[in-house]
Amino acid sequence: MRNAIMTIFGALLLAQPAWAEIGRIKHSAGTGAVGRGKARLPLTPGLQLEPGDVMVTGKDGEIGATFIDDTRFAVGTGSRVLVSDFAFDRATQVGRFMAHVMRGSLAVVPGQIARSARDAMKIRTPTSLLGVRGRRFIVEVR
Amino acid sequence: MRMVKAAPIAACLILAACGGNGALTVLPPDSGEDSSVAILESGGRAGETLVTDANSQTSLTRRGPVTRPIDPSKLSTRQKALIDALPPPPVRLMLYFKEGTTIITPASQPTLDWLKGEIADRPGVEAQVTGYTDTLGSSEDNDLLSQARANEILEMLVGQGVKREFMTAVGRGERSLRVQTADGVRNAANRRVEVVLR
Asked: CB-CB: which of A26, A47, A141 is closest to B87?
């Protein structure tokens, strides 16, 4: 019985990050949405982001987002950017961050996660994998 | 034999036609930090190419990265727009309190005024408010006092138009002292609330 309870509790703990807030939309312009599973959430300042979310913009779209580790994103026009993995412990300032720039452009100012360990933050493009080690940069995918 | 040789080239042409190539533009740091972006994989091959030069552009293709310097004043309109679209950097600030109260010190008033102005400039702002005390009094009382301090500042921020659901207020009592002291010691630097605006 005790084992069963522990197993359920363990499962809850593991599942918990899937609901946890990882960052927020700060501003947006033009057309765009946050894709979460089958839902398309309208862009509003303060919208909470979760792991697995895809930020999508149209030809005139733009999104600014800040994550809980202080990483900042600007998503450019005609883009699709997936945050596939995000975990951050506020107390220890350690975590991991993986984003995919499937198309379009993304400006990144790294935060605590990138500083916490070598290549704790990574960006994937259709051809490449980048390890983020501190600088501001732009990734463009045609 | 010929077919075997030709196959990879044909595959490359097809892949190139599919798109997905890109570019990495490394900008000067905004905070004086000096580090790099590493290309850990390109075209499915693992490797480690460090891009350490600010104001450089690196091709991201299946053939591997090639870096060249760029003139930072000649970024494309799209790139400039993208940089402008970055949210403002998060700020952390400290407010100090009169002993045993939830009243801020006169010296902290300008910080509070600045905070109010900053909130107005940040759409979708969220605030993380954490209260602390010095070690005078019981730790139970200090937990309550630190929470009351955090709540006081949170209510002030609500008055400034920050939505309540965009904020958290936590009291940490005499844990995480800013200045280490023995128990039962008055210390002005420890009677504080930290506000993170993001």
From this structure: A26
